[in-house]
Design brief:
The structure holds 2 protein chains of 2 kinds.
Chain A: H1 5-14, H2 21-38, H3 73-77, E1 83-84, E2 87-88
Antiparallel strand pairs in A: 1-2
Helix pairs in contact in A: 1-2
Chain B: H1 9-17, H2 23-36, E1 43-46, H3 48-63, E2 74-78, H4 105-112, E3 116-121, H5 161-168, E4 174-179, H6 185-191, E5 194-197, E6 217-222, H7 225-235, E7 265-269, H8 279-294, E8 298-302, H9 310-325, H10 343-354, H11 357-370, H12 376-396, E9 402-406, H13 422-426, H14 433-438, E10 442-449, E11 455-462, H15 467-481
Parallel strand pairs in B: 2-3, 7-8, 7-9
Antiparallel strand pairs in B: 1-3, 4-6, 5-6, 5-10, 9-11, 10-11
Helix pairs in contact in B: 2-3, 5-6, 9-11, 9-12
Classes of the chains: A mainly alpha, B alpha/beta.
């Protein structure tokens, strides 16, 4: 399952990372090198093995559904690259 | 003044309590050492004024005799832990100006016990690396040099390379670190210090910049097993703000270190004898086996058959989780913003410019293995192999109490080495990554010097939440190794 430049372009779009056109081919070579090394996992028999998402052997804790924090807009906005009043500002999305 | 920086953390604590040294004096000695050794590039941000103010407060408490477990002890914090009001970069350009308005649980626990923070240590960008070469703030220099070769600048390992270099060079007696695939244990081995990665869930991940959430775990670095155990006791504990934090009581990890080991069963996994492992690594491992035997342990050959698949599994699971965790860096709510024609353009520009090459590479791999059509072949497959790796350990721990392995496949290498091919760099974590995938505690202990005069480490892996037994065995290794060598650079 070798990655071609179109696939690299597609995953770069999905990841929202700009990759210049002349970088697509070198990136494909790099990623293919890593993926080829990863292919050895196909040697492992995983028939009937349940996939494992994490190691924590505890039931997820539950709590009452209520507000426990908030009312600190200045803290929330303190690192905003651009703000307008009590809001984050972004380029116009809807015409 | 210089000698103060050579005390153990336990020794500093005893003298602070006895009032034979003052917290201010101790802090100033370490701040002076930091200033003198800035060429190591161990710190991204130094906080001397805050540290001195905290030292005065510590002296006031100590004078009244009501100091906590760490009152007056200067520590360094890996720049992956959010610190309230102090810039936290994660080693990335994308967080160059990020000042968290909150404190991570682990660093808050250390503050609660009276620790003084002298600064934030350098690291591989978003903790992705084994050499510190991926930091946007420049590489860290290992204070150790090859015997007779001061020209080659060695790496301290990674990702917690700044913390490791700072502790080894006597700039601080201890530091926080994190370990996703070996980022505590590998740099500890490269710099001749002790590093503990506790069981997954022992330390809260809340407020630590996330890399791979099912693998990330915080832990301490220090120069002795006892010092590291003291720090771990303070850092650990259940935290409702991290749903994977273990609701278990925290033992005093330093309490039983000297208890005899008679009867302890030590496993030696045959699969860790890799083709091409340098003879000095094998010799150090055999020495470790002999030391534990002398200490009264029984030695058992064990099999962990899926060991060779751990790294490729890791390089699916970790990038997959990273691609999801790092989606938050979008140039909108915090961090760098690079303008674009529209919102999508702004995202793509910001992330291309804000992330370094290794981070971009891992996000792309993670996105690929999670994408439609490839998810089953890669991500699901890796999750199943991970289950088999865990099953290997579960089976092995039926007949042994701890597992002994080398910490790394070699000593520290030079800056610029192993950079041609990402996979060559990834192989550094071959002995450490299994403990992350299986969620087990691991510790790296300095075992001696190789023929070039560089430190080598031994690793012990313990049963889940049985750090106490693992650390007792680590203390036995430390006692036998009697590691006293000092790096070429340092206070």
């Amino acid at each position: 399952m070798a990655l071609d430049t179109d696939t690299v372009r597609r995953i770069a779009d999905l990841a929202r990372i700009r990759v210049a056109d002349d970088q697509l081919a070198p990136m494909a070579v790099e990623l293919n090198g890593i993926m080829r090394w990863i292919e050895q996992l196909n040697e492992v028999d995983t028939e009937g093995v349940a996939p494992m998402t994490g190691v924590a052997d505890f039931a997820l804790p539950m709590r009452d559904d209520m507000v426990t924090d908030g009312g600190a807009p200045d803290k929330v906005l303190s690192n905003a690259p651009e703000r307008a009043g009590a809001f984050f500002a972004v380029p116009k999305v809807v015409e | 003044m210089t000698m103060l920086t050579h005390l153990t953390l336990a020794g500093m604590r005893a003298q602070l309590r006895a009032r034979t040294i003052a917290a201010r004096e101790l802090t100033m000695a370490h701040l002076a050492a930091m200033q003198k050794h800035r060429a190591l590039n161990a710190f991204i941000t130094e906080t001397p004024e805050a540290a001195l103010a905290e030292a005065d407060a510590a002296d006031a408490k100590l004078a009244k005799g009501n100091g906590g477990a760490l009152t007056g002890i200067p520590l360094a914090i890996k720049d992956l832990f959010c610190t309230d009001g102090v810039r936290t970069t994660a080693g990335s350009k994308i967080l160059e100006n990020f000042v968290p308005p909150y404190e991570s649980t682990v660093s808050a626990n250390l503050k609660r016990d009276g620790a003084i923070f002298v600064g934030k240590t350098n690291l591989d960008e978003f903790a992705m690396g084994s050499s510190n070469m991926t930091s946007a703030y420049g590489p860290v220099r290992n204070p150790w040099t090859r015997r007779g070769d001061n020209a080659a600048v060695l790496v301290p390992g990674g990702s917690s390379g700044g913390s490791a270099a700072a502790v080894a060079a006597r700039l601080v007696p201890g530091a926080t670190a994190t370990d996703t695939g070996g980022s505590i244990r590998q740099p500890a081995a490269f710099t001749g210090i002790v590093g503990i990665k506790p069981t997954y869930g022992r330390c809260s991940r809340w407020g630590i910049v996330a890399f791979a959430s099912s693998l990330d775990q915080a832990g301490p670095m220090a120069r002795t097993v006892e010092d590291a155990a003291i720090l771990l006791t303070s850092m650990s504990g259940h935290d409702p703000k991290d749903s994977t934090s273990a609701p278990l009581p925290v033992p005093d990890f330093a309490a039983d270190l000297e208890k005899p080991l008679a009867g302890l069963r030590v496993g030696v996994p045959k699969e860790y004898q890799l083709e091409g492992t340098p003879p000095e690594i094998t010799a150090s491992w055999e020495q470790g086996v002999a030391w534990l035997k002398d200490a009264g342990c029984s030695i058992h050959s064990i099999s962990l058959p899926h060991t060779k698949y751990a790294l490729p599994t890791y390089y699916i699971v970790a990038p997959a989780e990273a691609s999801s965790n790092l989606a938050r860096y979008d140039g909108v709510r915090f961090g760098l913003r690079v303008p674009g024609e529209d919102l999508d353009d702004l995202y793509a520009n910001t992330r291309a410019e804000g992330f370094g090459a290794e981070v971009r590479r891992r996000i792309l791999i993670g996105t690929y293995v999670l994408s439609a059509g490839y998810y089953d072949a890669y991500y699901l497959k890796a999750q199943k192999v991970r289950a088999r790796i865990l099953a290997d350990f579960t089976e092995a721990f039926r007949s042994v109490d701890v597992v002994l392995t080398p910490a790394t496949p070699g000593a520290a290498f030079a800056q610029g080495e192993k950079m041609d091919d990402p996979v060559t760099m990834y192989l550094n974590d071959v002995f450490t990554v299994t403990a992350n995938l299986a969620g087990l505690p691991g510790v790296s202990v300095p075992a001696g010097l190789d023929s070039q005069g560089l430190p080598l480490g031994l690793q012990l892996i313990g049963k889940p939440f049985d750090e106490v037994t693992m650390l007792r065995a680590a203390r036995a290794l430390e006692r036998a190794a009697d590691f006293r060598a000092l790096p070429a650079l340092g206070a």
